[in-house]
Amino acid sequence: MSKKHLGHTARKRFGQNFLHDPYVISSIIDAINPQPGENLVEIGPGLGALTEPVCDQTDKLTVVELDRDLAARLRSHPFIASKLNIIEADAMKFDFASLADREKPLRVFGNLPYNISTPLLFHLFSFAEHISDMHFMLQKEVVKRMAAAPGSKDYGRLSVMTQYHCQVLPVLEVPPGAFKPAPKVDSAVVRLLPYTDKPVKVNSAQRLNQVCAQAFNQRRKTIRNSLKTLLDEEQISALGLNPEARAETLSLTDFATLANVIQNSSGD
Known about the structure:
Layout: E1 4-5, E2 8-9, E3 18-19, H1 22-32, E4 39-43, H2 51-57, E5 61-65, H3 68-75, E6 84-88, E7 106-111, H4 117-125, E8 131-139, H5 140-147, H6 157-165, E9 166-174, E10 179-180, E11 187-194, H7 205-217, H8 223-226, H9 233-238, H10 252-266
Parallel strand pairs: 4-5, 4-7, 5-6, 7-8
Antiparallel strand pairs: 1-2, 3-10, 8-11, 9-11
Helix pairs in contact: 4-6, 5-6, 7-10
């Protein structure tokens, strides 16, 4: 299959796979349910598979697009250009708070490039207070990891950090044939609802992320070994946790407890 689609060649370095399946597109639009007057933001609009039907249902849409050719194509779009606020930028470095409005929180959606999806999600979590919901097409394995419970092989740092920031609701699974070029993996759409009140009290989200990263970096290690530069065995036991436990058995609450003790003892 040619990688040229609607006159644009998919760029591997941007992780471009263009959605073209009408049923999948309409299912995603139904899930987003865009309304006039909302503060809608699309990341990576590409060839407009979601952009056009969203614009049919709303009066304005901000899009963040890194590819200059695709941004130019949208600027000259015969039907929707007047509704678009086109930001030519790298979403990984973009300040989403600059689009926020106290009265109108952001509704973010997109078919995210799979090669940067995890760091991009972490970047977006830092703006969670400005966002009412997010709908993303991601690699199916990533969605499984986001929603995973303790004790499962999919459970890891992404699970803990996503579930700290958001309620995770898988929406639908999408086969490779829905894209051109077809990716080598299955995809899925997920709905993320940032919490107004977090499910656990964490003094520093950065510290929680550090503890998760260190604990899951070598999954087979016990937390006594993986966290030994942060806490000793007695300190872990004093928290009611088993130093012989592995990271994949700890809950979000357990990680929050560890992170808070480490943060408090660091004096930061």
